[in-house]
């Protein structure tokens, strides 16, 4: 009898179980508030309860910059030479761009096949929020793209959590440390110890994850009539789920091809990061936890520390699929015909532009707005997808986590066998 009680206690201490329970409780509370109180009270409740999610995400953001810098520098220094960095970097970028392009193609295929935007006319659109998103595309240019990638100050990059800029600086720093050999060992050793301290902080921060997920879900359900939204957007959301489901199937099949039976173990290892990303709509929120789980899975720390920061800038599979899907959906609603050649050009544009704004709030929507503008699709069409974007974001955030975990594990296996 005591053994059964102990097993139950262990189950409820499990982070994944706690997060699932928090999601359910958050949905119930949000639904009750939405059903029993007027819009003003529900909105006020939503703003307050979402602070729990904000606190959790800010706690995670607090440790991302030092974690990326210390682990990436140590990882490169341990690789030992520029050839090793170039070899792993080449494999990483080859995987990232291949996965991104296939994700874009899957989105393009399903939106053309299911045509969720054909004949759709929606009123009462939130043009105010759409305007806020489209304003971010005004400075969207080649100069802005380069400025976003290359840091002018590592302090500024860390303050703004610009992962891609931190990665660029860390690569140069790590290569310089590796070239100095034994002279740089004290610095590398200090950074190695620092990275372990930061990873210990991850354990403390993750204890707050269920509360953060609870706040995020409750806040959304309090102000959105989920039933009406899904009824109105049934075709769009259903088609999107078919697309994201196809992408998951593709990623899992590729994973089984390269990892064989280890793929099942990988999925068990990353279940908590997947659920946290799903609940908070933030793949960034699980970066530290994913680092820890992949190292526990068996990927060498130097591979994890090199691959994950790059992946968070270049390998957002779920977001890529959504960008094509959303852009062509808006074109369908407005009756803008785009031939196959034009759609392929759009895919290439999305491949490039999406790399320049990693970490920007509503990044996917900003890229979609910019792309629509380039191809003469009404940019205000962003308002069409805003009401249900949060629910789509839950799925694409989890997919981004799966894609990066898979890429890191596969490259880790390649390096182990090479």
Descriptive notes:
Helix 2 (15-36) packs parallel to helix 14, helix 3 runs antiparallel to helix 10 (209-223) and helix 3 crosses helix 16 (301-314). 45% of the residues are buried. Mean pLDDT is 83; it is low at 1-12. The protein contains 20 helices and no strands. It has 418 residues and is mainly alpha-helical.
Give me the secondary-structure topology.
Blueprint: H1 2-13, H2 15-36, H3 39-79, H4 82-114, H5 127-135, H6 142-149, H7 154-159, H8 163-180, H9 185-206, H10 209-223, H11 226-232, H12 234-259, H13 262-269, H14 271-280, H15 287-297, H16 301-314, H17 317-333, H18 340-353, H19 363-374, H20 382-417
| pLDDT < 50 runs, ≥5 residues | 1-12
Instruction: Report on the biggest sheet.
Output: none
Mean of pLDDT = 83
Which H/E pattern describes the elements? HHHHHHHHHHHHHHHHHHHH
Strand content: under 5%
Radius of gyration: 22 Å
Distance between the termini: 51 Å
Structural class: mainly alpha
* Number of separate helices: 20
What assembly state would you assign to the polypeptide chains in this entry? single chain
Task: Sum up the overall morphology in one term.
Answer: globular
Give helix % range.
over 70%
Count of extended strands: 0
């Amino acid at each position: 009898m005591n053994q059964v009680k102990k097993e139950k206690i262990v189950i409820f201490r499990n982070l994944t179980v706690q997060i699932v329970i928090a999601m359910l409780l958050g949905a119930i509370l949000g639904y009750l508030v939405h059903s029993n109180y007027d819009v003003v009270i529900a909105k006020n409740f939503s703003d307050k309860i979402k602070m729990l999610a904000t606190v959790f995400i800010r706690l995670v953001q607090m440790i991302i910059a030092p974690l990326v810098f210390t682990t990436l520098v140590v990882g490169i220094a341990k690789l030992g030479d520029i050839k090793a960095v170039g070899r792993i970097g080449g494999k990483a970028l080859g995987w990232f761009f291949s996965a991104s392009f296939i994700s874009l193609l899957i989105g393009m295929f399903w939106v053309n096949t299911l045509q969720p935007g054909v004949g759709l006319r929606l009123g009462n659109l939130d043009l105010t929020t759409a305007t806020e998103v489209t304003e971010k595309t005004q400075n969207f240019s080649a100069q802005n793209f380069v400025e976003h990638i290359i840091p002018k100050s590592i302090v500024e990059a860390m303050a703004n959590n610009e992962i891609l800029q931190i990665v660029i600086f860390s690569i140069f720093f790590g290569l310089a440390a590796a070239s100095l050999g034994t002279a740089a060992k004290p610095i590398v050793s200090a950074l190695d110890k620092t990275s372990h301290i930061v990873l210990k902080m991850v354990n403390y921060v993750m204890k707050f994850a269920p509360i953060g997920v609870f706040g995020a879900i409750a806040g959304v359900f309090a102000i959105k009539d989920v039933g009406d939204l899904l009824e109105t957007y049934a075709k769009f959301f259903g088609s999107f789920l078919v697309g994201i489901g196809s992408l998951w199937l593709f990623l899992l099949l590729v994973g089984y091809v390269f990892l064989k039976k280890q793929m099942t173990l990988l999925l068990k290892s990353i279940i908590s990061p997947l659920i946290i990303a799903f609940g908070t709509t933030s793949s960034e929120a699980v970066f530290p936890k994913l680092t820890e789980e992949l190292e526990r899975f068996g990927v060498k720390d130097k591979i994890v520390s090199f691959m994950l920061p790059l992946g968070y800038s270049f390998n957002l599979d779920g977001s890529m699929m959504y960008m094509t899907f959303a852009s062509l959906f808006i074109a369908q609603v407005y009756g803008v015909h785009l031939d196959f050649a034009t759609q392929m050009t759009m895919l290439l544009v999305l491949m490039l532009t999406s790399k320049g704004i990693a970490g920007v709030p509503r990044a996917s929507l900003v890229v979609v707005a910019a792309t629509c503008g380039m191809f003469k699709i009404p940019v205000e069409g962003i308002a069409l997808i805003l009401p249900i974007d949060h629910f789509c974001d839950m799925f694409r955030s989890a997919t981004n986590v799966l894609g990066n975990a898979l890429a890191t594990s596969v490259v880790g296996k390649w390096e182990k066998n090479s």
